[in-house]
Amino acid sequence: MKRRWLTAPYIVWMLLFTLIPLCIVIYYAFTDYTTGSFTFANITGILDYAAIFLRSIWLSVAATLICLIIGYPVAYAIAQCKPRTQRFLQLLIMLPMCMSFLLRTLAWVALLEDTGIINNLVTSLGLSPLPLIRNSGAVILGMVYNYLPYMILPLYSAISKIDPRLTEAAEDLGCNKSACFRKVILPLSMPGITAGITMVLYRPFPPFIFPRNSVRRALSWSAIS
Amino acid sequence: MRKASKVLTVIVFIFLYVPIIILAIASFNSGADIALFKGFTLSRYAELFRDASLLELVRNSFIIAILSTVIATILGTAAALGITRMGKKLRALILGMTNIPMTNPDIVTGVSLALMFAFTGTILKLNSILGFWTLLIAHVTFNLPYVILNVMPRFAQMDPNLTDAALDLGCTPVKAFFKVTLHELMPGVIAGALMSFTMSLDDFVISYFVTGSGFVTLPVEIYNYTKKPIHPKVYALFTLMFLVLLLLMILMNVLEARKGNKKEKIHLPGMDFGGSV
Description:
The structure holds 2 protein chains of 2 kinds. Chain A is mainly alpha-helical. Chain A folds into 2 domains: 1-39, no CATH class; 50-223, Orthogonal Bundle (MetI-like fold), CATH 1.10.3720. In chain A, 70% of the residues lie in helices and 0% in strands. Chain A has helices at 8-29, 41-44, 50-79, 83-98, 101-112, 117-124, 136-159, 164-172, 177-188, 190-201, 212-219. Chain A is extended. Chain B contains 11 helices and no strands. Chain B is globular, with a radius of gyration of 23 Å. The chains are: A mainly alpha, B mainly alpha. Chains A and B meet through helix 1, helix 3, helix 4, helix 5 and helix 7 of A and helix 1, helix 3, helix 4, helix 5 and helix 6 of B.
């Protein structure tokens, strides 16, 4: 059918702006930085970063799982609302992500820091400050925070499409709640789960965030005021 | 179970808005440290409106976000329409290609595009082609996969008989597409457009590499701010932006509700044959 041609502009776009640029990167990966001759040195150099690489993978898998576990019930709850509320909640989930990623991260830093909002409260109660930041937990918190909406939306999109009559039928036919979930709702929301995982797992944490001491500097404007 | 998931939803919404609340409070803080509230002031907002260059950055960001979202949504939805009609192999190939910009870290996408633009620049013998157009191209490129990934699941769940029924009932294929297919896909299309807009408005890593000095967006400029202390007027700017977007959303919702009510009043009495409404 002719409808297939609708994909053509997209394919041309992706060839021009994704595949060709990627080929250029691959070309540079195998050439020497200064002389321009062929080399494997850049590739073997990766091994220096193996530990960081593995840690990144571990952290994103953990964050993705947490996003899925938290996101699924939320997407399900949203899908149970009235259609108008659903659309509003959909927008409400994405809204915080419109704000600058850097500023949102700075806000988390301000909250969790050793001299941050939470620790100010803790110390004013006479306790010693909690180690809330610069550990794996804080990194996972940041990742979950930034990627949760990207998990919830595709999940919601799939769950809201499930015909409620199917679950009713399953219950009529003697399924209990958990069996109904396992056998009807979960398989039918699978496309959303895969889409959500693709979006979250493959979006590694933005790799260059400002150096540590500049965060403190950025937050204390008093230095010049 | 239902109650638990509702409570969780409320908690998640609060969690998502924590940084926004912190920034909003900081924008009224007369003290300089974000973690210590000294006193209430509106002077940050006055300072913001005196800064014309900052407001221009906001305008630039919105122009790029809106344009790239519209282009990516149209291209992406059209592509998804075509992909569903393809054979298995071709479809796998194209979906594989769709995953490339998503699996690549932003920095790789940014650098690769910057390299290509630099090449094109030297071929065309232009000093620098980086600016508005390269930025727009880059934003459309990273938005496209999100549109496709949001629209495709709707297709998988859609009843193909619906379109056939519309055609049987006398719709032209174009009309059938707009009235039936697009209507069915709409939640996916909206989700895709929403993600595109958001990511475009907030993108900094890719923009950082492909933008020239002529056209700078807000996130890129904010990164420059982190090299020096952030002036609290930036918090004021984001608080305002947040409020404007929130108001727009509420307005859209109310308008939609009105439209919906009118439709019900016109259609329901005639169409309801004694069933419960």
